[in-house]
Write a structure and sequence with these properties.
25 strands, single chain, mainly beta, globular, about 300 residues, eight-stranded antiparallel beta sheet, seven-stranded antiparallel beta sheet
């Protein structure tokens, strides 16, 4: 029924800002094309706390920022500046190389707290060297399904007969699900690799209870029944496997030598900084043996 249960670990992404690191995990690097997952918050943000993630580079992946509360200002080397708000999808395709920052500047966000999920989706080999891009999708653009005790938003991909208009590069699904106590739910059958991360609350599967902070990765072909033990929030994700990927710091590629090139590109300034946020940036980590699964302070996405 379950291939593995992954317990979130603590990771520091900027001074004063720790997150729950879910993927990658030593025994399970990916679920479908999803190769990275962080859960930040919920936290109250004092005015004296700086949570900003300085400009940093990516290749070979798409970043997906999804907020439950608060907001984040995104700036990238394409010149795009976007205030990311709860319920929206912000899909950045790094392709052959992009740099971006994530800054927490809005005083209203500090008053209301912050909680977000950050994922990376590995690109198919044919798209790894594509031109970078960024697109914001308003919450109103995303399909929602409701039933007795069930609320579901399809963030991206296809699931349960619904399709999102968020542009993706490979077959996948990504869902925000809220279940009331006693509600029952299943997994989408359209995809071979499927996981459910418990953001809040607890669920029961085959008589076993699982609590928040766990990613349940299910065996291919099974059709489990998920029962909410209390009100629960889930992020469900998966899709079709793309093949093995190298991952180092913020770089993902099907080719090891491409990771080495990306390191040199960042060192030599060949990946441009955001034009309106280019005074400081995160330097390349000096410990070249450190994998992206445990990035240095300040490196989130």
């Amino acid at each position: 029924m379950l291939d593995i249960v992954i317990e979130a670990r603590q990771a520091i992404i900027s001074p004063g800002f720790s997150v729950k690191r879910i993927l990658p995990f030593q025994l399970r690097r990916m679920v479908g094309p999803f190769i990275f997952m962080d859960h930040g918050g919920p936290i109250d943000v004092p005015a004296t706390t700086n949570l900003d993630v300085l400009p940093h580079p990516h290749i070979g992946l798409s970043t997906v920022s999804y907020l439950f509360s608060g907001n984040v200002t995104h700036r990238d080397s394409l010149g795009i500046e976007q205030l990311i708000k709860p319920g929206e999808v912000n899909w950045m395709n790094a392709g052959k190389g992009i740099a971006h920052s994530e800054r927490f500047e809005d005083p209203a966000m500090r008053a209301g707290g912050l909680e977000m999920i950050q994922t990376w989706v590995a690109l198919p080999e044919k798209d790894e060297e594509s031109d970078p891009s960024f697109k914001n999708y308003a919450s109103e653009e995303l399909p929602i399904f409701t039933d007795k005790g069930v609320w579901m938003r399809l963030i991206a991909g296809d699931a349960f007969g619904l399709s999102s208009n968020v542009k993706t590069n490979s077959p996948l699904f990504y869902l925000h699900v809220v279940l009331e106590q006693g509600a029952r739910f299943g997994l989408p059958k359209e995809h071979s690799e499927r996981g459910a991360y418990i953001v809040k609350g607890s669920i029961e599967i085959n008589g076993v209870t699982y609590g928040e902070g766990k990613l349940l990765v299910f065996t291919k072909g099974v059709d489990p029944l998920i029962i909410a033990k209390e009100k629960v929030t889930l992020m469900m994700l998966g899709g079709e496997h793309l093949g093995e990927r190298y991952i180092w710091w913020n770089f993902v590629s099907s080719r090891k030598e491409r990771i080495e090139q990306a390191k040199e590109d960042w060192l030599q300034g060949r990946i441009l900084l955001p034009p309106t946020d280019n005074e400081v940036f995160i330097p390349l980590p000096q410990d070249r043996s450190k994998p992206a699964g445990g990035p240095p302070p300040g490196a989130l996405s």
